[in-house]
Amino acid sequence: MPIISRLFCHGTAIRRPLLQVLARNWHKEAIHVTWEKPEKGWTKVNYDGSCKCKTGNCSIGGIIRDHNADFLLGYAESIGRTNSTIAELAALLRGLEIVLENGWTDVWLEGDSKSLVDIIAKRKPIRCAKVQMHVERINLMIPEIDNCVLTHIYREGNRTADRFAQMGHQFKKPQIWRHAPPNEVLRFLHEDKQGKTVLRRR
């Protein structure tokens, strides 16, 4: 039986060229995203910011794990009204503060804002004074860590940090979890540790 060359939507014919475009978009190869463990002796910090578009209220969160993907620490807090860029920077800053407080020396920082990673890692120019202030603080803190790398990961691989950031909206004071994570992130922690791959559609 030949392939049907037209679809009918509300009485309007959609001809084959459009169908072929739709088919190509539907079957575009997905990106396989997997959270990766750090090397032995290293500590990994995943951070994220959350911004509610309607109110402008933002929160931050992050998670710190060892080379076995075992939970070491989680953090979350509300930071008031700002924008998503500042929220991402604030989440990274808080993660760096915790790293230095705990004396971790080999650290992998990872977030899902590529523009932020590019600004810091590639020293891209910044026009916003508030963003510049946060970046300068980050650039002063990173050299205090013996070995430190900063990388980007797609949001699908940063789900645990994202959940901490989402939780931050509900707290009036900064929250820290040590050794035992909250129930809200247990599923993501387990999936990350097992190396679960999440598909990201292009």
Automatic annotation (TrEMBL):
**CDD domains attached to this UniProt entry:** RNase_H_like
**RNase H type-1 domain span:** 39-170
> Which molecular-function annotations from GO does this UniProt entry contain?
nucleic acid binding; RNA-DNA hybrid ribonuclease activity
Database matches in InterPro entries: RNase_H-like, RNase_H-like_dom_plant, RNaseH-like_sf, RNaseH_domain, RNaseH_sf
User: What name appears for this protein in its UniProt entry?
Assistant: RNase H type-1 domain-containing protein
Source organism: Sesamum alatum
User: What is this organism's lineage?
Assistant: Eukaryota, Viridiplantae, Streptophyta, Embryophyta, Tracheophyta
